[in-house]
Amino acid sequence: MAKRALITGITGQDGSYLAEHLLALGYEVHGLVRRVALEDPERRFTRIAHLLDRVQLHPASLESYPSIFNLISRQEFDECYHLAAQSFVAESFADGFSTMNTNINGTHYMLAALRDLRPACRFYFAGSSEMFGKVRETPQSETTPFHPRSPYGISKVAGFELTRNYREAYGMFCVGGILFNHEGPRRGFEFVTRKITSTVARIKAGLSTELRLGNLDARRDWGHAKDYVRAMHLMLQQDVPDDFVVASGESHTVREFCELAFSEVGLDYRDYVRVDERFYRPAEVESLVGDATKARTVLGWKPTYTFPELVSEMVQNDLRITLGQTEGLPETVRGAR
Ligand code: GDD
């Protein structure tokens, strides 16, 4: 019988790639979505538009325990991937309360409902390299202590610890993936990589003349989201539940990303990039680079995309959108391809 998976955050970048991956493996895929999203499918389901006849969507709110309890009580699930969150770090400084409420309580509600109703369901929690924050060692691995630097990072540490606690206290198969930054053509426009590639395309098309960014010296370990969702699935197929770092092992500055993205279209980033203090964060995570040795050896996972391939794919996708080769569709739909 086909395995049945529930994905929270199925309409996001990772959720949409994971749904595709699980469908290809023969899973029956269900998604938890907000009611407002169900009422506005054209705008809200752009990343999963091509999957809508193959996935089952259920309205529920991560802010309401009864709605989660109700959804999980309706049928058996073999695996649950909890990806839904307020995931933009800068927004968590603007409204730390909402980020903490959604990210911490949402995770707790999911775990509590599963414990009551489906204790055999395997649970994946989307942890983050933001949990390392002001890093205590380089590279960061599963044993590196956490020192989060934003309400978002703090909420992810809490969710990660809750997940571990349910594993240890109730013997449930709960795992935390500590994923470093992962990007791709479906990335939201507020994140730095997509902001850069979409603006490069607009500049190339003559629609824009500059790109305003914050800290160009921040270092990140960037991979492709398509590679990273494979690791999520592998974590739930192990004999024993455990936590894993997923990373490329390479770090690059925001400046290097700009350099490569502009050179993809034959331009020099120094002619267009302007530093704007509005995009600085009150506390910055300066440098992240992951050690994914455990994922490579235990899960047999390895990334397939290189950094230049990732940048190139994102720029080319945004060029296609901007130059109107997929004319007639809203930008978010075209960006979702
Ligand atoms: N967004 C943004 N916009 N970031 C900028 C800008 C700008 O104009 N200028 C510089 N940056 C810097 C940020 O200060 C940060 O150091 C870096 O670019 C990356 O920022 P984001 O792309 O917003 O991602 P993030 O690293 O904060 O968080 C992402 O990765 C985490 C995993 O480490 C998000 O996807 C998180 O949800 C995820 O957990």
Can you walk through the features of this model?
With 337 residues, this protein is of the alpha/beta class. The chain has 2 domains: 4-182 and 222-246, NAD(P)-binding Rossmann-like Domain (Rossmann fold, 3-Layer(aba) Sandwich); 188-220 and 251-287 and 305-334, UDP-galactose 4-epimerase, domain 1. It has helices spanning 13-24, 35-38, 41-44, 65-74, 89-94, 96-117, 151-170, 192-204, 225-235, 254-264, 293-299, 307-322, 331-335; strands spanning 4-8, 28-33, 55-59, 79-82, 122-128, 174-179, 182-183, 211-213, 219-220, 223-224, 244-246, 252-253, 273-275. A 7-stranded parallel beta sheet has the order 3-2-1-4-5-6-11, sandwiched between helices. The longest helix is centred in the first third of the chain and has 22 residues, at 96-117. Guanosine-5'-diphosphate-alpha-D-mannose binds at residues 87, 89-90, 128-130, 180-181, 190-193, 195, 213-215, 218, 220, 254, 279, 281, 284-285.
Précis, in short:
With 337 residues, the chain is of the alpha/beta class. The protein has helices at 13-24, 35-38, 41-44, 65-74, 89-94, 96-117, 151-170, 192-204, 225-235, 254-264, 293-299, 307-322, 331-335, and strands spanning 4-8, 28-33, 55-59, 79-82, 122-128, 174-179, 182-183, 211-213, 219-220, 223-224, 244-246, 252-253, 273-275.
Helices and strands in order:
Layout: E1 4-8, H1 13-24, E2 28-33, H2 35-38, H3 41-44, E3 55-59, H4 65-74, E4 79-82, H5 89-94, H6 96-117, E5 122-128, H7 151-170, E6 174-179, E7 182-183, H8 192-204, E8 211-213, E9 219-220, E10 223-224, H9 225-235, E11 244-246, E12 252-253, H10 254-264, E13 273-275, H11 293-299, H12 307-322, H13 331-335
Parallel strand pairs: 1-2, 1-4, 2-3, 4-5, 5-6, 6-11, 7-10, 8-13
Antiparallel strand pairs: 9-12
Helix pairs in contact: 1-9, 4-6, 6-7, 8-10, 8-12, 10-12
Guanosine-5'-diphosphate-alpha-D-mannose binds at residues 87, 89-90, 128-130, 180-181, 190-193, 195, 213-215, 218, 220, 254, 279, 281, 284-285.
